[in-house]
Design brief:
By secondary structure, this protein is of the alpha+beta class. Helices cover about 45% and strands about 10% of the residues. It starts with 15 loop residues before the first helix and ends in a 9-residue tail after the last strand. Bound molecules: protoporphyrin IX containing FE.
Length: about 425
């Protein structure tokens, strides 16, 4: 017989508003106060378990104990992820769909993405030379929108670029249903889903012939475990599950630039292009800066873990931000210090900006390698290919905004390419 211990508990009525008010550090603060990787609380009008730290993350990714179906709040689905996509699937259905995503992530495909990205960066930088100043975050969103669509085989006319970038960004910028701009998010999702759905129809009836290695082709023709094509709506949701988050990497690029400006001693270490130091810098940006605050799942059964009883069908949140800032895992967790990755003992459950565990067998982010690649290319651009001035601006970021960004969105003036000779290659 298992011995039960009382799970640490946050008392009081519903804490949802407090979570929003305190923002990213909410769960870590409680875990530290109670000295625990798991505690019970009440959020979204229901009892919930909060898991964090290495052991909490390991438990969260045990698919025999947790499922994703109905875990994510509907308002978030209606803007951020869409409905019936890979995020909401479990078991064999998830495995099949996730394989479809991971089949796009070969080194060759990542190289193709890199080449597109470098070209678009370079073209934009040329344009910036004639501008007084630029807002880097806005510019990078557009660069990434062009890159993502072309890489995914999604045709995009020049006159559609601005609107498409704005609509894609609305999906991750206007996710919080308490914000007055939430409706813009739902509107953008409807527009984008209709657009991609038409493209899937055109691929299927032969009017449009994207390259066979592209997302649009692969997803349009993917057959599931029982040999069925995806519904057009679902195929559209999944194509957007590739394009949207590639554009969202712009948030990390804004933070990369913020780090270069605020930590000049660390920036100085980026002497040798492509060196390990670049990797450490990118990893530390992903660890240090807030992006995904938490992830939700639901228990599939009653079970006991570390002596604590868990009840079936209970909402469970994984504290992503707090695990990346957990002082039990990271020395001087609140310092930006890329060199910590020099002797980092790699674990799939301690460094989880894009989820933990396995990419194929679990829900860990399908685009983690793309993200790292894109960040490396952009870091190289900022350090080695551009010169710019940094006018006085507000570089702070607000820990109660989901997702958050440096307030100024990073303003550069006097932008020049340091290697304009590359022009002839474009
Ligand atoms: C911008 C930086 C990114 C961050 C911070 C991020 C973060 C995350 C997180 C936290 C999850 C959930 C993990 C879980 O459910 O346990 C996730 C899932 C996912 N991400 Fe990302 N992601 C990023 C970029 C990308 C990119 C570039 C792509 C695609 C090209 C992508 C595609 C996906 C997909 C398809 C899933 C669902 C995986 C599944 O449910 O099995 N993400 N991401």
């Amino acid at each position: 017989m298992s011995h039960h211990t009382q799970m640490p508990k946050e008392t009081g009525l519903d804490h949802s508003l407090k979570v929003l008010k305190e923002g990213y550090p909410y769960f870590l603060k409680r875990r530290e106060e109670m000295d625990t990787d798991v505690f019970e609380t009440t959020i979204l009008g229901q009892k919930a378990y909060c898991l964090g730290g290495e052991s909490g993350a390991e438990l969260f990714y045990d698919t025999s104990k947790f499922k994703r179906d109905k875990a994510m709040p509907k308002p978030v689905q209606k803007v951020l992820t869409g409905q019936h996509g890979v995020q909401s699937l479990d078991g064999k259905k998830h495995e099949d769909r996730k394989k479809m995503f991971m089949s796009l992530m070969s080194p060759k495909e990542l190289d193709r993405l890199t080449t597109l990205l470098e070209n678009y960066w370079y073209q934009s930088a040329k344009k910036w030379e004639s501008m007084d100043q630029i807002v880097l975050y806005d510019e990078v969103k557009e660069i990434l929108c062009r890159t993502a669509c072309e890489w995914a085989g999604v045709p995009l006319l020049e006159e559609e670029v601005k609107d498409t970038t704005r609509n894609l960004a609305n999906l991750f910028e206007k996710t919080a249903s308490i914000s007055p701009s939430y409706l813009q998010g739902t509107h953008s999702r409807k527009k984008l889903e209709n657009w991609i759905k038409k493209l899937v129809q055109q691929v299927r009836n032969g009017e449009l012939k994207p390259e066979e290695n592209t997302t649009l082709y692969v997803f349009s023709w993917h057959r599931d475990d029982i040999g069925k094509l995806m519904d057009e709506d679902v195929a559209a949701v999944e194509v957007l599950n590739i394009i949207r988050p590639i554009v969202a990497v712009a948030i990390y690029i804004a933070f990369t630039a913020q780090a270069l400006i605020q930590y000049p001693n660390e920036a100085e270490k980026l002497i040798t292009k492509g060196s390990k130091q670049y990797q450490y810098f990118v990893q530390e940006v992903r660890r240090f800066y807030p992006f995904f605050p938490f992830q939700a799942a639901i228990t599939t059964k009653d079970f006991t873990w570390n002596g604590y009883p868990f009840k079936k069908e209970t909402l469970t949140v994984l504290d992503i931000y707090g695990t990346n800032h957990d002082p039990k895992i990271w020395e001087n967790a609140d310092q930006f210090f890329p060199d910590r990755f020099n002797d980092w003992k790699e674990s799939p459950f301690s460094f989880i900006p894009q989820g933990g565990g396995d990419h194929l067998g679990g829900h860990r982010c399908a685009g983690e390698w793309i993200t790292i690649k894109v960040m490396n290319v952009c870091l190289d651009f900022l350090v080695n290919q551009l010169s710019f001035s940094v006018p006085k601006q507000d570089l702070e970021f607000n820990l109660t905004k989901f997702p958050t960004l440096p307030n100024s969105k990073i303003i550069f003036s006097n932008v020049k390419r340091t290697k304009p000779v590359l022009d002839s290659n474009l």
